[in-house]
Amino acid sequence: MATTVPEPPVIKPQPYMPSPGKDGGGGSAGFHGGGELRAVSDRSPEPARTGIWVALAAIAMAFAALTSALIVRQGSGNDWQHILIPRILYLNSAVLVLSSVTLEWARKRVASYSRGEGATRSEAMQWLGATLALGLIFVAGQYLAWVQLRSEGLYLATNPNSSFFYVLTAVHAIHVLGGLGGLVRVMYLLSSPVPVLRKSTMDSTSYYWHFMGMLWIYLLFVVWLKL
Amino acid sequence: MGKFFAVTVAIIAILSAIPIVMNYWGPPADISTHGAAIDDQLHETMWEAGVSFLAAQLVLALFVWQFAGRGRNDKLKNFPGGAKWLVIAAFLFVGTEILALGVIGQKAWATVYFAAPDKDAVTVQAQAGQFAFYFRYPGPDGKFGTPRPDKIDEGNQNFFGLDPENDVASRDDIVAGELAVPVNRQVNLLMHSKDVGHSFYVRELRIQQDFVPGLDLAVHFTATKTGQYEIVCTQLCGLGHYNMKAYLNVLSQEDFDKWLKDKSAQ
Amino acid sequence: MSEAAAHHGPPQGFIRKYVFSLDHKIIGLQYYGLALVAVFVGMFLSWLMRFHLVWPNAAIPGLQLLSKVGAPGGLITPEYYLSLLTMHGTLMVFFVLTNAPFAAFGNYFLPIQIGAEDMAFPRFNMMSFWTTFVAFVVLLAAFVVPDGPPISGWTAYAPLSAIGKDAGPGLDMGQNLWGISIAIFCIASLLGSLNFIATTLDLRAKGMTLMRMPLSTWAWFVTSCIALLAFAVLLPACLLLVLDRVAGTSFFVPAGLVVSDHLQPHSGGSPLLWQHLFWFFGHPEVYIAILPAMGIVSHILINSMRKPLLSHKVVIGSMMAIGFLSYMVWGHHMFLSGMNPFSALVFSFPTLMITIPATVLTLIWLGSLYGSRLQITAASLFALGFISMFVSGGVSGFFLAQPSIDIYLHATYFVVGHFHLVMGVAAIFGVFAGTYFWMPKMTGRMMNETLGKIHFWLSFVGAYCIFMPFHYLGLAGNVRRYSSFVDDFMAPLMPVHKFITIAALCTGAAQLIFLYNLIHSRFWGPPAPVNPWNATSLEWTVPSPPPWNNFGGVHPVVYHDPYQYSVEGAKEDFIMQNSPEQVKTTVRS
Questions:
Q1: Rounded to 5 degrees, what are φ and ψ at C60?
Q2: Which of A93, A220, C65, C411 is 20 to 30 A from C359, alpha carbon to alpha carbon?
Q3: Where are the beta strands (DSSP E) in chain B?
Q4: What span, in angstroms and rounded, lies between the C-alpha atoms of C76 and C52?
Q5: What is the pLDDT of residues C221-273, one digit of tens each?
Q6: Are the beta carbons of C48 and C449 closer than 8 angstroms?
Q7: Separation of alpha carbons A13 and B54, rounded Å
Q8: What is the ipTM metric for this complex?
Q9: Contact partners of B by the rule of 3+ C-beta pairs under 8 A?
Q10: What residue segments make up the domains of chain B, in order of their start?
Q11: Which residues of chain C lie closer than 8 angstroms to A65, CB-CB?
Q12: In this structure, are residues C513 and C451 in contact, taking their beta carbons and an 8 Å threshold?
């Protein structure tokens, strides 16, 4: 393969240093890491910013497909039996909404910390940790909801309503776990001795998390209305 | 090389058109009342599509013949009118085609699917299963017995799952492996699938309709010519799909009545 | 989210360089290699099917090694024919037509053409390929499980595909593997599309405005937007299908089905739901295959004609219109499926409408040929062949878009001829054109032009010999997906089938010339210069093959529209996109 490959250029890691951001609002582009070949000032926004919206569009489309499947399925058979949704779901919803709030607080503190405006790293970490904990509580709560349904004799294949309940909540929970992974990554990046957390990473992780919250509220509505 | 390409494309285009123009392998003669409209539609589309096909291929051949291999010193020319007129031409040409075929041609579809069946139509139930068709006539009482999937027993010839002991309506139902219909009388075919998806296709009748499990559909037609025609399955239904067929027997009214009588005597 | 492009340094070691590489170019080559394996497997399966159709009693020696049950003594059973059919369709549609024109060439050239050093998310990119690879392995595993590959076709219509082993051979483990493989493939394609979109929007070099992107890049971009939404629907559909199969749910299986004398324990599901979900993906999938080929062919034709197309904007607009309309037409696969007959008319209209942008594109290509300085190369021959095939396959779509005609032609060989020409052959011709055009850049070696031209003539004539007669068979009412023609009216059509089989065997064999050319030139071809075709876009400004970071650490700056050919007063007859040379252009794009 190597006929005319020149020597790759040597990359000099750039030291961490805050630089003025162009995208106003809560923070700056100051916390990107070293070795950034792409740090050309007249460039478009960082790909993570676009990427997250694209990913959310795909996720929204997948849930739209599941929703329309639900509506078609409801109309196709005479076996649609409403199930009483477990009360714990309302508690879970509150937990998830609260986690979005704590994440916003965390994001403010991360921004403030990276600009050197007072907030400390451990403060930011605490709020991120709180969000993570709430997220885990949500997933555990969802699991309890399944346990409750099972104790009522409603399994995945019992009737279409229970099938859709398990599918919708499970697919959502998998996405929430993905978001938790993102949070862990943010915390890892923030905690390294030289902070390498980029603003775009922080932002896209939080957009994703808020979307999971909104998606859950939507799903809860669908489940409450249809199942 | 360019000229060779041009000639090849032109020859392929013309050779491709010959079997169509000579009608070597066209559809068989239509035996239904609604089929003529479909044939007209097919014929018209064939003209428009055929002309578009030949025109595009021959223009491609012509331009490649003319302009391949021209060097740096040959003058570049732009297509007269440029992109604008081509876009307008596409909209006008294709738009007209859509109007001519798409809108006017819906009539052929409408006669098959939008019209309600006649009141005096012969009602037959067709059931498709892996890998055979069965047909059921309501018998003298004019009522079908209710089929029960749990009663289906192919070993005892109970293909529809009838329950004559408890279900009075099913006692005189006539079940056959062929579809006999009277000529020039409308037939309303109720379609039911026993297992997976199948399809009912009779070329001469210009009828094709899927059997959808769990969804009973109906299609109606009037055959205008007596004779025997093949019914084949056109929806992939498993290993015996290729061999899933039955016969459509279009009989005169007297023959049909006699056939019914013979069948119910069995 | 992963880091921005080129956050990774130069790759170290064989594994990092060629196996788990983050480099979009290596990943592109990996996709190309995977598609190449898949296309030869798929073609081999089609040989077996064609052979069995016309010589059902002739044993194929050694075939029993592939499947003892499916081909005892080398004779293909009817159910094994359907297994081959399913695998042929699945391999070709997913692993060839989605991978080769879109993922392979797109990965390699999209970043270079917009002046980026890598994809936006190199790790996702690597994951995307390896996930595809896993999907491929899972699919091929169906060949070795006891009951063999599924027999439900590449469309896997429920409930045949959803019931399990009662419904027939291959519908047990084989069908599970199919569903899982396609679900994995969806994830891979979603990652890939995400990458393409973010890269195109965010990583363009200075001066590379959207309208200055080459048409191939535009095609990949539009395709990735289509793929993102299409695969996002197929993924949950596959999930529900697999659940119906393994968990006993009833999404697609209605109540009261008696299969193999067993009353199935399902209730209330909707077979049409699967068809809707599948075709909502399935129709855009056609454009996922054909749009990149349109872009590649435009890119190559412009270079060979030494003049831009009549209108850059109209071509882009047409591609976008096709992408948009592709979401409104899925129901035309279901005219006779038992859905509401009024919706057939609703779906028919946009289907006919989609002919308009397709016609505009064809007229633009033809009109641009007029007055050009067309150079005949293997690449341009395949590009011209693409136009011819696209027209031939396209006009037959006009029949199938009309519900009333579909009553007669649905599920006949007319449909087979239509989609093979327009989606299969045309897209593959785009891939061949791209290969002859870009392989010098990808491998650093020129391909053999003479062999390339011989390959073209055999493929072009051969493809017409195979697929044109399919239309005649369809008009005669020959039904598709039959392993043999026992029906009275189909038996007389056997001579046509024989002709097709012989043509298919010959045309398939001719592809070995291509394979030889590809492998031979890769190792022993003459070294490729930087810009062998005197082309203008950015991929021709970097060495062949390009270094790991494409532009050697320099950020290219773009000054021109992509296709500045035959510019009066320029030093040469073309101006590269990154050349600061300013000339008053006479040929406007």
A1: -100, 105
A2: C411
A3: 122-129, 132-137, 174-176, 179-182, 186-193, 198-202, 207-211, 217-222, 227-232, 245-251
A4: 7
A5: 999 999 999 999 999 999 999 999 999 999 999 999 999 888 999 988 999 99
A6: no
A7: 63
A8: 0.95
A9: A, C
A10: 2-70+78-113, 122-265
A11: 232-233, 236-237, 277, 280
A12: yes
B36: distance to nearest CA of chain A, Å? Answer: 35
Listed residue (A129, A115, A105) closest to A184, CA to CA: A129
Peptide bond into C271 cis (omega under 30): no
The residue length of chain C stands at 589
| Chain A residues with CB-CB distance to B216 below 8 A | none
Q: How many CB contacts within 8 angstroms connect chain A with chain B?
A: 3
Q: What is the DSSP letter of C204?
A: P
8-state DSSP, C121: -
Q: Return the pLDDT at B49.
A: 92
Q: Is the peptide bond preceding residue B131 cis, with omega within 30 degrees of 0?
A: yes
Q: Three-state DSSP class for B110?
A: helix
- Rg, C-alpha atoms of chain B: 26
In a domain, A195, yes or no: yes
pLDDT attached to residue C7? 54
Q: Which residues contact B174 (CB under 8 A, 6 or more apart)?
A: B136, B137, B138, B139, B260, B263, B264
**A12 at interface of C, judged by CB pairs closer than 8 A:** no
Q: How far apart are CA C370 and CA C373, in angstroms?
A: 9
As given in the structure block, the two tokens for residue C9 are 């340094």
C317 pLDDT higher than 70 = yes
CATH number for the domain harbouring residue A120: 1.20.120.80
Distances (CA, A) of C296 to B76, C214, C220, C309, C368: 23, 9, 9, 13, 16
Distance between B116 CA and the closest CA of chain A, angstroms: 23
Determine whether the interchain pair B149/C256 forms a contact, defined as Cβ–Cβ distance below 8 Å.
yes
Eight-state DSSP code of residue B145: P
Handedness of CA C13, C16, C17, C22 (dihedral sign): negative
Residue range B90-110: mean pLDDT, rounded: 83
The arrangement of strands across the sheet holding B245-251 comes to: B179-182, B245-251, B227-232, B198-202, B207-211
| Identity of the amino acid at C17 | K
Q: Which helix (H) or strand (E) holds C565?
A: strand C564-565
Contact A79 C250 (CB under 8 A): yes
Q: Can you list the alpha helix ranges (DSSP code H) found in C212-311?
A: 215-246, 271-305
CA A145, CA A152: separation in Å to the nearest integer?
A: 11
Check pLDDT > 80 for residue C330.
yes
B71 touching A (Cβ < 8 Å): no
B129: CB partners within 8 A, 6+ apart: B159, B193, B194, B195, B198, C258
B122-265 carries CATH number 2.60.40.420 = yes
Closest listed residue to residue C473, CA positions, set C50, C8, C9, C12: C50
Which structural domain, as residue segments, surrounds residue A154? 86-226
Query: How many contacts (CB atoms, under 8 Å) link B and C?
Result: 321
> pLDDT tens-digit profile of A148-205?
999 999 999 999 999 999 999 999 999 999 999 999 999 999 888 877 888 888 999 9
Instruction: Kindly state whether residue A215 falls inside one of the protein's structural domains.
Output: yes
Check whether domain C30-255+270-575 has CATH 1.10.10.10, yes or no: no
pLDDT tens readout for residues C126-155: 999 999 999 999 999 999 998 899 999 999
CA angle B116, B120, B126 (to 5 degrees): 70
The verdict on residue A90 lying in a domain is yes
| Percent of chain B clearing pLDDT 70 (strictly above) | 100
Mean pLDDT estimate for chain C? 93
Nearest to C274 by CA among B196, B126, A152, B98: B196
Nearest CA in chain A to C203: A44
- Measured CA to CA, the distance from residue C260 to residue B154 in angstroms comes to 10
Residue C580's pLDDT is 86
The CA distance from C574 to C581, in Å, is 10
